[in-house]
Amino acid sequence: MGELVDFFIRSRNFILFVLLEVLSFYFIINTNNYWGATYFNTSNRYAAQVLAWSNAVNEFARLRQVNADLAMENERLNAQLTQLLQSKPAAPAEYAADSAFASRFKFTVAKVVNNTTQFANNYITIDKGTDDGIRPGMGVISPTGVVGRVKSCNRHFSVVTSILHSSFLVSSALTKAEEIGTARWDGVDPHLIKLNDISLTKPVAKGDSVVTSERNSTFPPGILVGRVRTVGVQPNRVFHDITLDLATNFSSLAFVYVVENRLQTEQEQLENQIETEK
User: Fold this and answer.
1) Structural domains of the chain sorted by starting position, each given as residue range(s) with its CATH number in brackets
2) How far apart are CA 181 and CA 125, in angstroms?
3) What is the reported pTM?
4) At how many degrees (to 10) do helices 33-87 and 12-31 cross?
5) Are 141 and 147 within 8 A, CB to CB?
6) Which residues are CB-neighbours of 107 under 8 A, at least 6 positions away?
7) What is the pLDDT of residues 144-202, one digit of tens each?
8) What is the Cα Rg of the chain in Å?
9) What's the per-residue H, E or C state across 162-219?
């Protein structure tokens, strides 16, 4: 307390000067209309600027929560859309899928915590594991398209084999030509992927959509793989040379959806049984 008193005594001249300056400034503003208006306009402008900066900071701080909320909403909408499409597939009018088949896909939202794109074989790490019902073999998609397949899990994390992997294959269908082929990355550009085994007899045009086909048990059918970028002819072969623009931008991948096919094990057990009986 004594030190504080000593400080005021030593600084009394400076403190008096400041008080007189403030008092003078107060009288100028309150007795002169021009300077009063100038002061209030200036203070309001700076106050508005500070408020705008404050709002911008608050909005930026909330972006993480906003993105998480949007991911959860997309998870719900994906489940509803997939169930609707599976209950009314392109089939004869008398055909109707049973409820178990139509609702066989379950979606779990997860956050990407690590991701590579620069190698020949790339992997993604997500923040969901066996405690969240994730297991190897499940498909992984993004809000825009195919991402990969779960390779391994522990309780809280999973490693996903990216579609940007030399051995990753996706059964894919050209929507206009209604032809099924195989999408496979050639290890060059992380924005492009090849579509193989499309016959030259099938018309293919730039911009055509390529989606997951009905002939796989990992991904729901109709998930976008990419769009045709270029169409050529493979030398001495009867197939198109097709390059796609990947639907998923892996450089900005933040949230993904792990897809569980509840009937996958049942389907594969039956198919394996038939194979062993041949």
Assistant:
1) 101-264 (2.40.10.340)
2) 28
3) 0.67
4) 90
5) yes
6) 75, 78, 79, 82, 257, 258, 259, 260
7) 899 999 999 999 999 999 999 999 999 999 999 889 999 999 999 999 999 999 999 99
8) 31
9) EEEECCCEEEEEECCCCEEEEEECCCCCCCEEEEECCECCCCCCCCCEEEECCCCCCC
Does the CA dihedral 227-79-250-186 come out positive or negative?
negative
What single-letter DSSP state applies at residue 111? E
Report the distance separating Cα 67 and Cα 115, nearest Å: 18
Rounded to 10 degrees, the C-alpha dihedral 227/196/225/91 comes to 100
Contact 141, 259 (CB under 8 A): yes
What secondary structure does DSSP assign to 39-72, as a single string? HHHHHHHHHHHHHHHHHHHHHHHHHHHHHHHHHH
- Which amino acid belongs to residue 75? E
Amino acid, single-letter form, for residue 215: R
β-strand partners of 245: 192, 227
